[in-house]
Amino acid sequence: MRHAALSEADFAAFQSLVYAAAGIHLTPNKREMLATRLARRLHALGLTNYRAYYNLLMSEDASGEEREHFINSVTTNKTHFFREPHHFDFVRDRVIPELRRRVAAGAPRRLRMWSCACSSGEEPYSLAMIAHRELARDNYAIEIVASDIDTEILACAEAGVYSQTQIAEVPPELRSRYFAEVGRGWQVRDELRALIQLHQVNLIHDAFPFAGTFDAIFIRNVIIYFDRPSQVQLFQRLRSYLADTSYLFLGHSESLLHITEAFVPTGQTVYQPRGAASHAPRRRGRTTVTRLPPSSLLVSREPVRIDAIVGPSVGVCMFDAEAKLGGMVQIRGEAGREADQLIAQLVELGANRGALRAKLVGGGSASPEGRARGAGFIAVAEAALHRADVALTSKRVGGQRSLEIQFFTSSGRLLCRDHESAHRRA
User: How does pLDDT run across 178-217, given as a tens digit for each residue?
Assistant: First the structure.
């Protein structure tokens, strides 16, 4: 059955409905996606246009059954086992050892984690595998709460049956221990399924159907769908479900910068409540001064002032303002690989890739040949940042002089001067 196109007015109406029902903010570039997904519901109901479907949702859906189908249609459910594996390594290497130390001091022998947007179950089952392998033999109580707004995808999680492709990321030793072959697929064994509690939860509007705190909350690749007021509200609520010793995990491109100051970063998109950080040593005192040679790269978790001279080469000064770490390298080649190396080392040190910001400085020379080379390096540096999706916040490039610079890694502050000139902010 053919149906009319999704008009701008109808898209605006659905935007408001999705926001009111689920707190999800659909940006204009989601119009085609929404039309494709809702087309399936139009076909199932024998409707010929989107306005008729909207009217049905607003006035003819007394039971709310179609509203549920509608929400299921607009939610995104991309996931796989052990997605962003460093987070599961963090649970194994830090969350669980810290729990063991608290238990030795008298705390309950229990691990409790929440997968806030569990989709078809791969994330909570991944957590359950790690927890069971590490703790079950010592008689720890393990509780994995898994929630999602989509009822259809929750049914998949409850069934716990996955294809050969879906379990490709599960290590062989865990697959043989926690899965059983069923037909052409693999089903999670009962001992693991027993650790999972599934709930339908609207993170923005619902009262959460459980109480108490969690040792870890995973809310990855979710907040990108909410507007800022909804994000602020959500993290205020989540803070009350975390003890000072607990951890919060976000997706690789997400950050709490400008959303809340209730958490501090402890690793790659891993956070702790700010109360926990108050007992940690403060990174204050004298800033280390380091001279950076032209061919070198420097990143630092501790406050460092990098001193350098840039001529035709272009200095890429990069920092994560929330994690308070940064580094610098000079672009002197044609591929911009230096910038890629800088990003990789910052992320390895604990920076959030999505929060990285950059400043460019240099590319100047007294000679025409040097300025021509500098212009090429400037273009290479800008292209490298664009390719890596790192925001460029300022640049002082080109000109007829080399520059002396000071870059402060913990704040992103950059001072520049021509030879014999007074400092001025870039």
Answer: 999 998 899 999 999 999 999 999 998 888 998 899 999 9
At 117-151, the pLDDT tens digits run 999 999 999 999 999 999 999 999 999 999 999 99
**Alpha-carbon distance values, 234 to 27, 129, 145, 175, 256 (Å):** 20, 28, 17, 35, 11
| Structural domains in the chain, sorted by start | 8-74 (1.10.155.10), 85-277 (3.40.50.150), 288-425 (3.30.1330.200)
Return the pLDDT at 283: 42
List of E strands, 184-341: 185-188, 196-200, 214-218, 242-249, 263-267, 270-273, 288-291, 297-300, 304-310, 314-320, 325-331
Query: How far, in Å, CA of 300 to CA of 108, rounded?
Result: 38
**171 Cα distance to chain centroid:** 24
Q: CA 376, 382, 387, 389: dihedral to nearest 10 degrees?
A: 170
Contacts of 264 (CB under 8 A, 6+ apart): 271, 272, 273, 274, 276, 277
What DSSP string runs through 101-142? Answer: HHHHTT--SEEEEEETT-TTTHHHHHHHHHHHHHHGGGT-EE
State the pTM of this model.
Answer: 0.65
Residue positions annotated with a catalytic role:
37, 148
Chain segment 54-99, per-residue pLDDT in tens: 999 888 887 888 888 888 888 877 789 999 999 999 999 999 999 9
Distance (Å, whole) CA 282 – CA 410: 13
**Pairwise CA distance, residues 25 & 23, whole Å:** 6
Q: Which backbone phi and psi does 180 adopt, to 5 degrees?
A: -125, 140
Instruction: Give strand pairing partners of 148.
Output: 200
